[in-house]
Structure formats: C-alpha cells, structure tokens
Amino acid sequence: MSPDLRGAMRNFATGVCVATTYADRGGVRRHDAVTLNSLTSVSLDPPLVSLSLHRDSQFLTDLLETKKWAVSILDCEAEPLARRLAKGRDDRAEAVNALPATPGPKTGALVLDAHSGLECVLWDSFDIGDHTMVIGEVVSTGVRDLQPPLLFLHGSFQHLAAATTSKE
In terms of pLDDT, which residue wins out, 86 or 162? Predict the structure, then answer.
C-alpha cells in the first residue's frame, strides 16, 4: 500500500498564487495563467524561487519555451480569480483575457494587480516524479498593501481571520 501523500499534505497550509507566462506563435502572443500553491522561496542570494507543474501541462511547455514567467501572490479577496484559473487551459482562456494585469517590464509575463508579485527568468528545471520543478531567478518584485493572504488547506481555499500587516 502506498502512502497517502495527498491526504497528509491536506493538513499543510500553503499560500495561493497565480503564475503567468506566454507563447509567441505566428506573430501572436498568447498569455496563460494558472492557480498554484507550489511556490517556494529557494535562495536569497541569488534570489531564486521554484514552482512545480505537472509534466504534461501546456503552461509548463510555454514557460520552458519562453523561459520567463510572473507569479502573483493572492490575498483573500482573490478567491474567485483563483477558482477561475484553477481550471483547464481552455476554460481559463476567457478569464486570462479579462485579468486585471499588465505585462511585466522585465519578462513580458502578466503581473496581476495582486498582494505581491515576482517576475522570474528560468534558472534551471528538473523532472521529479510526475512534475517538473522550475527554478527561477527573481528579476523584479512588487508589494502592494498587505491584506490577509488566500490560503489552501484541507483541499479548499481558506481565509486567514487575522494577518500581520506590519512592514518589517
């Protein structure tokens, strides 16, 4: 019997973010965005973060082709957006076109009007199990007013009742 990793990890609260990238094909740029909870800070010097994406993801294919992406960390008011972008690529397309976002100055990937955001360029990638972990060098950051974060716990989105909003 294999361990119930999904069941165990349901008890680990994670933040929720939206990753964006794009593909240039036939002279047309097509943006894509996906909800993730696999963002991890890897290193401060150099500034590196990681994402884990399913290997058969078209989002991953586009990211590995452009080698650029952005990550927007969501606050508790962004749950409806997180739900829309947690669907399949075809279902996300309309939501992506209506995103409150602008192309980042360093990468061209969409940066949402969100809690905070990062622009990244590919540092390395590793196939691990059924996922690919991408490591990105953070080339730009932005932080907006701090609101309680959107969390993922017990298989669903959660709102933190009170969050520290001091800027240290």
Answer: 86
